[in-house]
Design brief:
It is a single chain. By secondary structure, this protein is mainly alpha-helical. It has helices spanning 20-39, 44-64, 72-79, 89-107, 119-130, 165-179, 182-185, 189-203, 210-224, 230-240, 242-255, 260-299, 305-316, 323-328, 332-336, 341-353; strands at 2-5, 11-14, 150-152, 157-159, 357-359, 365-367. It folds into two domains: 15-282, Orthogonal Bundle (Fic-like fold); 303-367, Arc Repressor Mutant, subunit A (Orthogonal Bundle), CATH 1.10.10.10. The chain is built from 16 helices and six strands. The strands form three sheets. A two-stranded antiparallel ribbon has the order 1-2. It has a two-stranded antiparallel ribbon with strand order 3-4. Helix 2 (44-64) packs across helix 3 (72-79). The longest helix is centred in the C-terminal third of the chain and has 40 residues, at 260-299. It is elongated, with a radius of gyration of 25 Å.
């Protein structure tokens, strides 16, 4: 832990101290999940499907924390160059900036030695994030010189970070030196990344864009440590649990020397994100495996072409359906509009007997994704 005496804001603490009873179990779970995900066979085609969806939803999540209403689907449209008139120019510009910032994140490759954070990188990130976004005080990439208030009474109270530029400049120098120090570099990457996120926010060096910059700093430190997918998924968790996000920050400020509140929240976010990512990857692997299995069954003539195509449609559109919907609802009606109800019922009975389809309430059918175990 380091103490730093500012000119106008008293003592400032850079602390890595935490309560092991709150943190260690979460840390073990996060690292076990990382090893599990790394061991899963992920084809390039699969990775190319997962990563963009995570990126677009993450951009939406990190922007939404700051009040931007643009959804993940619309982020994708903006990335394609579309102009969405339902949103303000400011909101769209924030998303365009975040897309650029996430492209920078993608360019960060895993390294054997811990990634060293620099003020230059931090200022570059902030410049990308806030450029061309109107703000009467903020200058992209430049530290502020003035009073700001962070938080509110509903989330643990209002915090006033250091206000004069001399204090901010000195604190940022100290922050970068501390986060790159031997004692911090030896910490688990999850811990170091969370500490960087927290202490940067406590300094709050810019007029605007501090939260988005902090979350990208955290993501870069995780990605450089070869922690896949999580750097882009965390912002979604933070947005879904935004009240606890702010409360954890406030509890950390009140404790001053104990990083446990914020570390615990970030590790809970990492574990939750990893579980979600594992489920997504396993689901895609199941889809690939089932598609191959259906093709094999068709080659063995245990499935007709129509039955094979029905199963393939359900892989891409996994919904519940009735016999009636086979005849009337797209895309199933393409296969069954000219087929008798008796033939359709015979198809479903055969697929259910092979455990390829499940029968639920009200005689609704659905694909059995676990037929292979």
């Amino acid at each position: 832990m380091r103490e730093f005496l500012t000119f106008k804001s008293g003592k400032f603490y850079f602390s890595e101290k935490y309560d092991p009873s709150q943190i260690d179990n979460l840390l073990v779970r996060a690292n076990v999940l990382i090893e599990t995900i790394v061991d899963l066979p992920i084809l390039p085609e699969l990775a190319s499907q997962i990563q963009p969806d995570i990126m677009y939803s993450s951009i939406s999540g990190t922007a939404a924390i700051e009040g931007n209403p643009i959804t993940g689907d619309d982020v994708k449209k903006i990335a394609r160059g579309e102009d969405l008139e339902i949103y303000t120019k400011k909101d769209q510009q924030e998303i365009k900036n975040l897309i650029k910032a996430y492209n920078l994140l993608f360019s960060i490759k895993p390294v054997e030695e811990p990634f060293l954070l620099t003020e230059e990188l931090i200022c570059d990130l902030h410049k990308i994030i806030t450029s061309d976004v109107p703000d009467e005080n903020n200058v992209p990439g430049k530290y502020r010189n003035g009073l700001v208030h962070v938080g509110d009474k509903a989330h643990g109270g209002v915090y006033t970070p250091p206000k004069i530029i001399e204090d901010i400049q000195n604190l940022m120098l100290e922050f970068v030196d501390w986060i790159n120090s031997d004692e911090i570099l030896q910490l688990d990457p999850f811990i170091r990344a969370s500490l960087s996120h927290y202490h940067f926010c406590v300094i709050h060096p810019f007029w605007d864009g501090n939260g988005r910059t902090a979350r990208l700093i955290e993501a870069i430190l995780l990605q450089s440590s070869n922690i896949k997918y999580v750097p882009r998924e965390l912002s979604n968790y933070y947005y879904r649990n935004v009240d606890e996000y702010y409360n954890a920050f406030s509890r950390g400020i009140k404790s001053k020397k104990d990083a446990s509140p914020f570390l615990r929240f970030c590790l809970e976010a990492s574990v939750d994100s990893l579980e979600k990512i594992k489920q997504i990857i396993v689901f895609y692997i199941r889809k690939f495996s089932l598609r191959d299995f259906y093709s094999f069954e068709k080659q063995q003539k245990t499935l007709t072409t129509r039955q094979f195509e029905l199963l393939s449609l359900l892989l891409d559109n996994p919904v519940e359906f009735t016999i009636k919907e086979l005849h009337e609802k797209r895309p199933f009606s393409i296969l069954y509009s000219r087929v008798t109800t008796q033939t359709a019922r015979r198809d479903l009975k055969k697929l259910a007997s092979k455990n390829l389809l499940l029968i639920g309430e009200n005689n609704k059918y659905s694909l059995n994704f676990r037929v292979l175990g």
